[in-house]
Amino acid sequence: MSKTFIVADSIGYLTSDYVGCNKEYLEIVPLTAHIGPHDFVDDLAETKRFYEILMSTKERPSTSQPPIAAFKKVFEEKLSLGYEIVCITISSKFSGTYNSALTAANEVGKDKIYVLDSKAIVGAETYLIKYAVQKAREGEPAKKIFEELTGMVPRLKLYFVPDSLEFLHRGGRIGGAAALFGSILQIKPVLTMVDGAIEVVEKIRTFNKAFEKLYELIPDDAVWAGVVEFYARDAAVKMQAKLTEKLQRNDIEIYSAGPVIGSHIGPGALGTVYLAKD
Questions:
Q1: For residue 167, what pLDDT is reported?
Q2: By its UniProt entry, which InterPro entries does this protein fall under (predicted)?
Q3: CATH code of the domain in which 138 resides
Q4: Which of 41, 108, 112, 170 is the most buried (most CB within 10 A)?
């Protein structure tokens, strides 16, 4: 049986219980966020403190990718134990994390390390990590897992509505939504990620109508679906209930965005995510 180990950055925002139960197959290399004198390891445990400080100050948040050395340390340790490695990262158009991981892999043992650009953020990346961990548990070779994940990336669709475009704009991650900035006060745009970059789906006037659009964008035949929230739990619970009824399934989970993604998209945003049929 093959020995495969999964390394991922923190953008999947997995619960501590999940990470603890899968520590034989998974290790997280976290990013970090900063607001003035406050530093935050990118973890769900820091989410409440992060958003409370973010909403109480005019300080702009900033983020830092993991250093190459952080990935090298994990890679070297797992390779010494006989593992092959699949490493999953946030979209390379959103962060330099993928490049850090790829550089580390090339320096340590690129023939046994497969680095995946998820072209995604929380929700979609979360699904990829959990899928990879399950396959590692089942003894699937790293190369096969990587190939399966690569095939899933273009089938994963994320849609979200920011409460404000301010955070995307000042963080430089606004992508194709840049044209919206002049009318920021008048719209609640539905955004998506296309090949890892943010693009506009539709310009909508109110949050309620944008909420309905997020719901409508999930097809009835979705293989998997979930809800992503950025300190917008009440709206997320409402969306979860609607999707549970629409899709007639009880596995619709809510994924919470922590400090790093919260720095770029801001509080109050809501999203839906799904895996399309092959």
A1: 74
A2: DegV (IPR003797), DegV_C (IPR043168), DegV_domain_contain (IPR050270)
A3: 3.40.50.10170
A4: 108
Is 52 inside a domain boundary?
no
With a CB cutoff of 8 Å and minimum separation 6, the contacts of 106 are: none
Say if pTM beats, i.e. exceeds, 0.90: yes
CA distances from 8 to 66, 71, 115, 127, 260 (A): 11, 9, 9, 12, 15
The domain in which residue 85 lies consists of 4-30+64-153
Q: Identify the helix (H) or strand (E) that includes residue 125.
A: helix 124-137
What pLDDT, on a 0 to 100 scale, did the predictor assign at position 142? 97
Does the CA dihedral 118-124-127-129 come out positive or negative?
A: positive
| Contact in structure between 129 and 154 (CB atoms under 8 Å) | no
pLDDT value for 4: 98
In what side-by-side order are the strands of the sheet with 84-89?
26-29, 4-9, 84-89, 113-117
Buried b (16+ CB within 10 A) or exposed e, 24-54: ebbbbbbbbbbbeebebebbbebbeebbebb
62-99: per-residue pLDDT in tens? 999 999 999 999 999 999 999 999 999 999 998 999 99
pLDDT for position 176: 45
| Phi-psi region at 119: left, alpha or beta (left = phi > 0; alpha = psi -120 to 50) | left
Q: Provide the pLDDT for residue 21.
A: 98
Q: At residue 278, what is the residue type?
A: D
Cβ-contact 210, 188 below 8 angstroms: yes
Q: How far apart are the first and last CA of the chain?
A: 28
Give the pair of three-digit tokens for residue 65: 């990718």
Q: Residue 52 has which token pair?
A: 């409370």
In terms of domains, do 195 and 235 share one? yes
164/145 same-domain check: no
